[in-house]
Amino acid sequence: MNSRQQLILQTVTENGKISVAELAKLTGVSVVTVRHDLNVLEKNAYLRRVHGSAVAIDSDSVDTRMLNNFNQKKILAEYAASIVNSGETIFIESGSTNAILARILSKRRDLTIVTVSSYIANLLRHSQCEIILLGGVLQKRSESMVGPLTQLALKNVHFSKAFIGIDGFRIDTGFTGRDMLRADIVNSALQKQATNIILTDSSKFGVVHPHPLGPTGLINMVISDFTINDQYQSYLSRQGIEAIAPAGDDQLP
C-alpha cells in the first residue's frame, strides 16, 4: 500500500463514505487514478466501492483500524510506553493502539513482551526485546491467537503489566468486546492480576458489544484521551481506576 492509498483509506475510514471526486481533489490525482487505488484497496478487503464512492467496512484488520484516529492513538501509546520499566515482562493484547505501543517499544532492548497477536510479534521481529508469542488458533483477520491452547499458555506465563484493548464501555455493561473468543483471552489475562491497563481512544466509550471484559474491578488504569465525558470519569474514579489522559492534563479529575 503506497502513501496515497494510505491517505485514501484513512479518509474513508474516518468519514464512512466519500466520493471518488472528493478523493481525487484531496490527493491531487485524477479520478482514474483514484479508481485504480480503490480497486486495489477493495481487492484487499480494506473498503467497499459503490457507485461513485468508497465506503468503509467494519473490519478486524489491524492495519485498517490503526488508521482511525491514528495521531490520538500514538499519543496514548507513547504515554503507555513511558510507564514500562526497564527489565519488565509485560503482556500486550491485540488491537490497533496496542500495535502502536509495540512499535514504540521495539526500540528498547531491556523488555520481555508476551503477546497473543501475530501482527505485534511480526512488528517486533527485528527488535532487541525478548518476544513470547503464545500459541493457539490463529484468527486470520485479526491476526490474533485464540482458543483453549492460548488460555492454557496464559496460565503458564507471568507478567507485571497487561495492556488490553476494548471495543466498548458503558457504565451499565462495563468494558466489552465484539468477539467472544478474543474476549475469553482478555479475561484470562485479566485474571492473572497483574497491573491491568486499558489502552483505548475515547470513541469506544458509550458503545456496547456482546461480550464482557472484566469484571471492572480487575482494571487498574485506563489510558484514553481527554474527550471522555465527566460521567465516565466519575465512574472510573469511584471504581478505584486511575484514568490518564496524556493528550490533556496528566490525570483526569
Overall description:
The structure is a single chain. The chain is α/β, with parallel strands linked by helices. The chain is 38% helix and 21% strand. The chain has helices spanning 3-15, 20-27, 31-43, 62-67, 70-82, 96-105, 118-123, 148-155, 180-190, 230-238; strands spanning 17-19, 47-50, 53-56, 89-92, 112-115, 130-133, 137-139, 144-146, 161-164, 168-170, 174-177, 195-199, 211-213, 221-223, 242-244. Strands 6-5-4-9-12-14-15 form a seven-stranded parallel β-sheet, with helices on both faces. The protein has a three-stranded antiparallel β-sheet with strand order 1-3-2. A hairpin with a 4-residue loop joins strand 7 and strand 8 (144-146). Helix 1 crosses helix 3, helix 2 (20-27) crosses helix 3 and helix 5 (70-82) crosses helix 6. The longest helix is centred in the first third of the chain and has 13 residues, at 3-15.
Number of domains: 2
- Kindly report the CATH topology of the largest domain: Rossmann fold
* General shape: globular
Query: What is Rg?
Result: 19 Å
Per DSSP E runs of 2 or more residues, the count of β-strands stands at: 15
Count of DSSP-assigned helices: 10
Order of helices and strands: HEHHEEHHEHEHEEEHEEEHEEEHE
- The helicity comes to 25-40%
Outline of the structure:
This protein has 2 domains: 3-57, Winged helix-like DNA-binding domain superfamily/Winged helix DNA-binding domain (Arc Repressor Mutant, subunit A, Orthogonal Bundle); 66-244, Rossmann fold, CATH 3.40.50.1360.
Structural features:
single chain; 253 residues; alpha/beta; Arc Repressor Mutant, subunit A; Rossmann fold; 2 domains; seven-stranded parallel sheet; globular; disordered C terminus; DeoR/GlpR transcriptional regulator
